[in-house]
Specification:
Layout (H helix, E strand, L loop, with lengths): L1 H17 L1 H21 L7 E7 L4 H11 L4 E7 L2 H9 L5 E5 L3 H6 L4 E8 L3 H17 L23 E8 L6 H32 L2 H6 L4 H30 L8 H23 L5 H18 L12 H7 L3 H15 L3 H30 L1
Parallel strand pairs: 1-2, 1-3, 4-5
Antiparallel strand pairs: 3-4
Helix pairs in contact: 1-9, 2-7, 2-9, 7-9, 7-10, 7-11, 7-13, 9-10, 10-11, 10-13, 10-14, 13-14
Length: 378
Amino acid sequence: MTSRVWPIMQKEFLEIWRDPRNLGFVLAMPVLMLLLYGYGISSDVKWVPLVVYDRDGRSPARELVRRFTSTEYFVVTAQVGNLREFRRAIDTGQAKVGLVIPEDFSQNLAAGRPAPIQFVVDGSDSNTASIAIGNIAAIGKSTELTPRDLRPQILVAPKLETPLPIELRTWVWYNPELKSSNFLIPGLTAVILMMLAAMLTSLTVAREWERGTMEGLIASPLRPHELMIGKILPYVVIGLVDVVFILLVAVFLFRVPMRGSLTLLMISSTIFLLGGLGIGLFISAATKSVQVAFQLSTLATMLPALLLSGFFYPIENMPPILQAITTLVPARYFLVVIRGIFLKGVGLAVLWREMLFLSAFAVFMLIASSARFKKRLE
């Protein structure tokens, strides 16, 4: 099979090399888009997932949690019993904000002393983090626990009927400065790669139909899947070159920290690219027009990646029907992977679910596009 696929790959590389405009488009467009959107893009956030580590466990602590979750800004998604579970809830994205209530919280309130509590905010999503911090401060200022909120068996003198002070301490993890570029650049990478992968393969095959050269390929002894592999592999290589360019721009120009495994980033990018290339081949089997292929690839990749991946709008804020649809958008999962690698430094132990979905999606799209391609050629 290799001996038959290699000439198709050579032909595809030569086609790209002979057309400087096409080569420039393939290599320069991702970097240009990253620069334009990265510098050019600088929304109420509700129902932010909250993990609670209540070391006190008494009535005032529960009342404090109720005060924060009785608003529409926070919802408890996990209650944990140790710091390891607390960290994992934030690492895995189960929670964007963590609340730690110390074991002497109720005692401090009963004694009229300041009662510190700690909030930890996931800064990998700087937009949500900034708004969450503002909401924490606003709710904290309006939250006053009086002795009526304490357990009946805690004896409090009548003079302590005045509100008791609560001291808020907030830490931001992963993106302490809340730089928007740290949030935007990894997200833009997912959008750009998905759009580029689908567009390149769909336009390439559609151009073969328009030029009339596809008939010659059909008449060759190549099997449909061999022709498909020969068409895809050059763009996998070019896509990975684009990933390297994007990585260099992100790290050295935008100063986005790269805390995780570069190997895992390249593997996940390859899998993500294969899924996008599969979408492009599937589209190319539906049309022989370059213009229609361009429109379909944009509609199928760019819009979902921008609007339904959690890039611009938190998925938690979407209506239930849209939340269900987002589970089918591969950019949603790659967004978690790339932000996890860049900003959190987490590995496969945390990201395996997203990697599993991306792999399954890539396999499904390649099989579906191969079957569709074969049917079209026949």
